[in-house]
Automatic annotation (TrEMBL):
Residue ranges crossing the lipid bilayer per the database entry: none
Protein keywords: Disulfide bond, Seed storage protein, Signal, Storage protein
Pfam families: Cupin_1
CDD domains, per the entry: cupin_11S_legumin_C (cd02243), cupin_11S_legumin_N (cd02242)
Species whose genome carries this gene: Trapa incisa
Coiled coil segments of this chain: none
UniProt keyword annotation of Disulfide bond present: yes
Similarity comment text for this entry: Belongs to the 11S seed storage protein (globulins) family.
Domain Cupin type-1: 89-283, 353-502
GO BP, one annotated term: seed maturation
Annotated InterPro entries: 11S_seedstore_pln, Cupin_1, RmlC-like_jellyroll, RmlC_Cupin_sf, Seed_Storage-Functional
Highest rank taxon of the organism: Eukaryota
Region (Disordered): 163-189, 305-337
Name of the protein in question: Cupin type-1 domain-containing protein
Length: 527
């Protein structure tokens, strides 16, 4: 919606006496709203029946729009796991560990109040060099941040063509020629992508994915699964369905987390008939040899991976140009959006975006640091899974302005340095007041106000958001609430002088979100 256009819920009065009226009473009251990208209007309410019908249509459309982008506000209610009884939030570490032959899987306790409130599960996967994470899918969409290492990633989705050709496994020339006659001389498969440090990878619900570490160091990925997403029609319990392997050696107290091979429960004869293969192959599908879900391949893995990023970038720019033109006539881009079918949404769509690119920073300050937000505008697949992420870097002693999120919960994973973080609850109490360091995870609930100050070594983090179009409202800086309020409102609200109100309003007028440290804070010792 354009900044100068009136909002239908605020400026239209439905004249029909049988319909509810949304205009505040009494009519002589003055209402001032400070809202990002929304400017108040004094337009009078339409009086004709046509205008009333239009207002009703706009009201219904607005509710449907929010239902599409807000995880189904009109169709889903809060369960007992979503009541958000958050009197105290604590930074946490993994409580459950699954040891496999080629790496480890660490899982945070889903029963913690903060994760129950946000409706998420947090996983950290470590894949050792030349190891393979076996194919699996989950019951909800997820975002994975590559904290360290590099590798190749495959995400398969039904209906997409097998556009990649790799060399077959036939041993002799005669066997290759024989296989070629049957159309199997080459291995056809869906797109495989190169991933590296700093990449954000979007994996839709039910999409099978696998990963191979072909680098020289461990590949570490931090994943947040949005169990409260409307795509998950099961309960808010993490479920992973593996197509191979078996449960590895488990450690920790989260006993109800069990990942198993989906083929193990099926009858051998039925599977053999379904695939038209001998029973011996089926027994291999179901075999659990204790290696877990990250294994050391017995044969060398060599698949085609596009290294020419220029071609992919050029194609993505062309695709964005087409979709941006179509979105001019479409109210939103979502699961119900007006794109051109499956080929436009998944088969040719980017699934990853690197968050370490400084030239793409959304907020940059030489004295404070930088923020890089990846939402549906940078990575359109996020519009489908309704998630996004933020990569932040605070310089020593700099501050992340007091602010709250208007659209989403945030799951914060600390990747470096340390910071003093505070979160204020609705009762005016501190629900979080800790110094966090690398490896810590904590949740910032929607509408809870938070502030952070980096330590002497700076502060780096990635936050996963449960909205594809996140919006934050800062309390300091040139985009803050105080800048939008009249001085007389500030002076009367806090019983301060006009000069003091001007200091609150304008002292940080050249900065936003990331605030450079004051001389006083630089001299203060680290707690």
């Amino acid at each position: 919606m354009h900044a100068n256009s009136p909002h239908p819920l605020l400026h239209y009065k439905i004249p029909n006496p049988n319909l509810p009226t949304f205009t505040p009473q009494p009519s002589s009251a003055v209402l001032h709203l400070s809202y990002p990208n929304l400017i108040s209007s004094n337009n009078m309410a339409p009086k004709s029946s046509v205008a009333g019908a239009l207002a009703l249509f706009l009201l219904c459309f607005n509710l449907l729009h929010h239902a599409a982008h807000g995880k189904g506000y009109a169709t889903t209610g809060l369960t007992s796991a979503q009541q958000c009884h958050l009197d105290r939030i604590q930074a946490s570490q993994p409580t459950h560990r699954i040891e496999s032959e080629g790496g480890t899987t660490e899982i945070w306790d889903q029963k913690e109040d903060q994760f129950q409130c946000a409706g998420v599960a947090v996983i950290r996967t470590t894949i050792r060099p030349d190891s393979l994470y076996l194919p699996e899918f989950m019951n909800a969409p997820r975002l994975a941040f590559i904290e360290r290492g590099r590798g190749i990633l495959g995400i398969t989705y039904p209906g997409c063509p097998e556009t990649y050709h790799s060399e077959g496994q036939a041993g002799s020339k005669g066997r290759r020629e024989e296989a070629g006659e049957r159309g199997r001389g080459q291995d056809l498969h869906q797109k495989v992508q190169r991933i590296r440090r700093g990449d954000l990878v979007a994996i839709p619900e039910g999409a099978v994915h696998w990963c191979h570490n072909d680098g020289d160091e461990e590949l570490v990925a931090v994943t947040v699964v949005d169990l409260n997403n409307q795509a998950n029609q099961l309960d808010q319990r993490l479920r992973a369905f593996f197509l191979a392997g078996g449960q590895g050696r488990s450690e920790g107290g989260v006993s109800r987390i069990n990942f198993h091979n989906i083929f193990a429960a099926f009858d051998d004869d039925i599977l053999a008939e379904a695939y038209d293969v001998p029973s011996e192959i089926i027994r291999n599908l179901k075999r659990d040899d204790g290696r877990g879900f990250i294994v050391n391949p017995q044969r060398r893995i060599k698949v085609m991976v596009p290294e020419e990023q220029e071609k992919e970038t050029h194609f993505e720019e062309q695709r964005r140009g087409r979709s941006s033109r179509s979105r001019r006539f479409s109210p939103s881009w979502s699961r119900e959006g007006a794109d051109n079918g499956l080929e436009e949404t998944f088969c040719t769509m980017k699934m990853r975006h690197n968050m370490e690119t400084r030239r793409e920073s959304d907020v940059f300050s030489r004295q404070a640091g930088r923020l890089n937000l990846v939402n549906m505008n940078k990575l359109p697949i996020l519009g489908w899974i309704d998630m996004s992420a933020e990569r932040g870097n605070l310089l020593p002693n700099a501050l992340y302005s007091p602010h709250w999120s208007m659209t989403d919960h945030r799951v914060v994973y600390v990747t470096g340095g340390d910071a003093h973080v505070q979160i204020s609850g609705p009762k005016g109490q501190n629900v979080f007041d800790e110094r966090v360091s690398q490896g810590s995870v904590f949740v910032i609930p929607q509408f809870f106000v938070t502030v952070a100050r980096a330590g002497n070594n700076g502060f780096e983090w990635v936050s996963f958001k449960t909205s594809s179009q996140p919006m934050q409202s800062p309390l300091a800086g040139y985009t803050s609430v105080f800048r939008a309020l009249p001085l007389q409102i500030i002076t009367n609200a806090y019983q301060i002088s006009s000069r003091e109100a001007e200091e609150l309003k304008y002292n940080r007028e050249h900065q936003t979100f990331l605030l450079s440290p004051s001389r006083k804070s630089i001299r203060m010792p680290v707690a």
